[in-house]
Amino acid sequence: MQWTEVSIITTSEAVEAVSNILMTYGATGVSIEDAKDFEKLSTGMYGHHGGYIDLEDVPHISKGAIVSAYYPESRHIDQHAAEISSEVQGLTEFGLKSAPGELKISPVADENWKTAWEKYYHPFAVTRYLTVVPSWDDYKPKNSLEQLIRLDPGMAFGTGTHPTTQLSLQALEMVLRGGESIIDVGTGSGVLSIAAKLMGAKKITAYDVDDVAVESAKKNMRLNPQAADIPVAVNDLLKGIHTQVDLVVANILAEIIVPLVPQAYENLKPGGHFLMSGIIKDKYGLIINTLNQFHFKVDQSMKMGDWYAVIAEKTVEEDK
Questions:
Q1: Residues 153-171: what's their mean pLDDT?
Q2: Which CATH architecture has domain 2-119?
Q3: CA–CA separation, 135 vs 106, rounded Å?
Q4: Domain positions in the chain
Q5: 25: left (phi over 0), alpha (psi -120 to 50) or beta
Q6: In sequence order, what are the residues at sequence separation of 6 or more whose Cβ sits closer than 8 angstroms to the Cβ of residue 217?
Q7: Rounded distance, CA 125 to CA 94, Å?
Q8: Is 131 known to sit in a ligand binding site?
Q9: pLDDT band at 82 (very low <50, low <70, confident <90, very high)
Q10: Is the pLDDT of residue 266 over 90?
Q11: CATH homologous superfamily for the domain 124-319
Q12: Is 54 annotated to bind ligand?
């Protein structure tokens, strides 16, 4: 079978948003070349074939990122090129710098795309106790406290290397004590739900508006036996959801967090926490003002590069 590769030259901060756009057009997989990822790599053994990689011999970009998606010929993705370009350029409305946003379409043989990107993914310690491991790697924990999250990076949606995901995982470690009930909004790869389960959360429900993301999350849940029982469903944020949980987590864009704030408040127990990430620097004030408007108390803000994560508490009546 022949495939069509759609590649977009963009910035490191826009990688996950661009990946999401490409997946919504029916991509069967996404590979990412991010200059920031190469900063973490070193010469050594990678992949389940035990291949030795010398970075001096590996062509790689020195800045920005290239997101490539793959479509079967029958998808006729070339007919959607203008739409895809428009959506990528439109990310600026969400505070993301996606320039240059150049799009390139080219054919690729079936035997090449599935494994070409494997050498670029390796175990990555996202917190002191959590390491994200590609699904094919036989990496073993270095000590009894290290916990592994196995993901299939081919489906993108948050592999742990992006600052927004790292901030979310670090914030989870700060909040969770064990036994909590959680709603994961915009679950993507499912990485936050899997991590929460490893940290002792008792009941987790995950949602995403994109059915492709939901299927991706389900596959990743199955790669992590402890998280295999987490239900994942399609839903538009928390519309129609009425429950009471200890924690709502969301790693999504700031503009999407804004309408989620009152929904999170409704679904949290008094004193429950709302953990949000994906907030670019220019939108931080908007999020803080919205949280204050809906009677959340900001417990902590965390920053990595131009990105923020916020931990907020639903105030009880006497605290308002």
A1: 72
A2: 2-Layer Sandwich (3.30)
A3: 27
A4: 2-119, 124-319
A5: alpha
A6: 157, 187, 188, 189, 190, 193, 206, 208, 232
A7: 29
A8: no
A9: very high
A10: yes
A11: Vaccinia Virus protein VP39 (3.40.50.150)
A12: no
